[in-house]
Amino acid sequence: MTGEADRRPGIPRGERGAITVADRVVAKIASHVAGEALSRFTESVGRVPPGRRTPQVTTTVRRAPERNTAGGGDGSAAGRQAVIGEVRMRITVELGYPSDIGAQCAAVRREVSERLRTWAGMDVSDLAVSVERLHSVHARHTDQERVR
After folding, report:
1. Residues ≥6 apart with Cβ < 8 Å to 103
2. Burial letters 109-143, b for 16+ CB under 10 A, else e
3. Burial of 105 by CB count in 10 Å (0-12 exposed, 13-18 middle, 19+ buried)?
4. Are 91 and 56 in contact (CB under 8 A)?
5. How much of the chain exceeds pLDDT 70, in percent?
6. H or E, element range at 93
7. Which one of 35, 59, 95, 109 is CB 3.0 to 4.6 Å from 89, fit for a cystine?
8. Integer CA distances (angstroms), 126 to 6, 70, 117, 147, in order
9. What is the rounded CA–CA span in Å between residue 76 and residue 2?
């Protein structure tokens, strides 16, 4: 099936049109990936109430700057993936306590950066992971007095 776009003689296929990814799409991907990354830490997940396990994500997406491909680069165009845009984001999580907080935040940063690059063609220029609340096993029992 050939359309008119395939028959245009002067414009190569890779240079036609543009792809844009909305902020909320990037936020949904990041939230999903962050949740997956945190689910691997079983000692922490069981302590966080079910309604608070979904990370909150705030994003800002910028379109990637135009790159000059005429001068020939050291890498082939077929071997590298095109970058659609650049993302700055803040991810807020709630974690169980005690647990390895640093390892969980590092896993979120690493996996979100890798998957946004793979799935959406986005470079993550700034990613902040903040812990909003720690949930302790002792804090769930409201009928008991405070643990000191």
Report:
1. 41
2. bebbbebbeeebebebeebebeeeebbeeeeeeee
3. buried
4. yes
5. 71
6. strand 85-97
7. 59
8. 38, 29, 13, 38
9. 28
Taking only the tens place, the pLDDT of each residue in 57-87 is 998 888 766 554 444 444 444 444 567 889 9
Distance CA 53, CA 135 (A): 11
What CA–CA distance (Å, rounded) separates 122 from 120?
5
Place of tokens 């799409």: 25
pLDDT at 147: 56
- Dump pLDDT digits (tens) for 13-63: 667 676 777 889 899 999 999 999 999 998 888 888 888 888 999 988 887
